[in-house]
Amino acid sequence: MKKLSLAIVSLFILLSCSSDDGNKGYNISLNFGHIWDDTPVTNSDFNTIKFTNANGNQLSIERLRYVISDLTFNNSNGETISIEGYNLVDVTNAENLSFSPAATIPKGKYTNVSFIFGFTNAKNIDAAYADLNSASFGVPTMMGGGYHYMQLDGKFINSSSSEQGYNYHAIRAVDNPGASPSFPQDTFFKVDLGAVTINSNTNLNIEMNIAQWFKSPHTWDLDALNQALMPNSTAQIMMYDNGQNVFSLKSID
């Protein structure tokens, strides 16, 4: 009788462990790499005029940092797993190039993984995030407050063959800066990475093609659009358009 009882207990433990493994959550990391078309870009490439955009402008990159938020997993049953939080990817200082949320993801096949470039309007709250405040990533109240989505800065060779600065800063598009700003169009956007299967701890290796910000559907002329772009809602909407194909899922491991 004791042997039978031990066998039943052992079977129960085995089944319990098997069930637990099926429901186990796995750690997910988003690793962000950067390219200029087919050429890898790191901060070692900064501060030198070595890139040429689709308009033919020669330029450098001196600073690149951007926010991603609201990581989401969708499965074939129509269920959604949403992970709160955000990550400031700082390419200039090679900081936060990987984002590993504390929440785990259950094993399974997911029809799409996505994140938000920037913040949704509901979460783009003025002065709400202490780390972004200390990083000087905020947007002035007269332009709606909240935070930048991206700061991309550098120099380019202008039509007079001189070096000139540019500030390609993406924010929520704003009109009528001042006491009562208005917002003609949302300019945060969802980045869809596609289908992913999770059966172990997983790295999602994501690439940003920096050249695409200047490429299509709007060929960006830095002689015409180089600074004071934050209060320019037309420029912000052009950035939104160009950003739709900036990110891609390079690999999974």
Structural description of this entry:
- There is one protein chain.
- This protein has one domain.
- It is 15% helix and 38% strand.
- The chain has three helices and 15 strands.
- Strands 6, 7, 10, 11, 12 and 13 form a six-stranded antiparallel beta sheet that branches. Strands 2, 3, 8, 14 and 15 form a five-stranded mixed beta sheet that branches. Strands 1-9 form a two-stranded antiparallel sheet.
- The radius of gyration is 22 Å and the shape is globular.
- The N and C termini lie far apart (49 Å).
- 28% of the residues are buried.
How is this fold's topology laid out?
Layout: H1 2-22, E1 25-26, E2 28-36, E3 39-40, E4 51-52, E5 58-59, E6 63-75, E7 80-90, E8 98-99, E9 105-106, E10 108-117, H2 130-134, E11 150-157, E12 163-170, E13 189-198, E14 202-209, H3 233-243, E15 247-252
Parallel strand pairs: 2-14
Antiparallel strand pairs: 1-9, 2-3, 2-8, 4-5, 6-7, 6-10, 6-11, 10-13, 11-12, 14-15
